[in-house]
């Protein structure tokens, strides 16, 4: 990958609402070059999509996020792929990762309530043939997500010093 593409991707990873003119000036190239590079990377699936990061806590909409570690028995000639595909096809599931350690897959999901997430894990996820164990962690607060700090920095409170 050349330096231009790398710089475009680094910028877009932090700011997907890219201003082509501004990015072209930053990189010292013309706007058409930047637009062509982005279009080519979209075609090659280097850029897979565009997303908006929302702080749902500020919307008043109740939801619960969870991370679920899943231990599975890999399938012959397919490894973890078929099980991962089965899991990522559920609408509630946001992401599925193959991980190292005591578990094999890490599943990120959202539901309306703790009960809904628990039901999903116990009734749908744990019952998939090949799943041999799960551990669920509910996300209580997001401090940083996708490189964005989600909580405002608190001003330091100091006691007034008087003589």
UniProtKB/TrEMBL annotation:
<protein>
    <submittedName>
        <fullName>DNA-binding Lrp family transcriptional regulator</fullName>
    </submittedName>
</protein>
<dbReference type="InterPro" id="IPR019888">
    <property type="entry name" value="Tscrpt_reg_AsnC-like"/>
</dbReference>
<dbReference type="InterPro" id="IPR011008">
    <property type="entry name" value="Dimeric_a/b-barrel"/>
</dbReference>
<feature type="domain" description="Transcription regulator AsnC/Lrp ligand binding">
    <location>
        <begin position="68"/>
        <end position="141"/>
    </location>
</feature>
<dbReference type="GO" id="GO:0043200">
    <property type="term" value="P:response to amino acid"/>
</dbReference>
<dbReference type="InterPro" id="IPR019887">
    <property type="entry name" value="Tscrpt_reg_AsnC/Lrp_C"/>
</dbReference>
<dbReference type="InterPro" id="IPR036388">
    <property type="entry name" value="WH-like_DNA-bd_sf"/>
</dbReference>
<keyword id="KW-0238">DNA-binding</keyword>
<dbReference type="Pfam" id="PF01037">
    <property type="entry name" value="AsnC_trans_reg"/>
</dbReference>
<dbReference type="InterPro" id="IPR036390">
    <property type="entry name" value="WH_DNA-bd_sf"/>
</dbReference>
<dbReference type="GO" id="GO:0043565">
    <property type="term" value="F:sequence-specific DNA binding"/>
</dbReference>
<dbReference type="GO" id="GO:0005829">
    <property type="term" value="C:cytosol"/>
</dbReference>
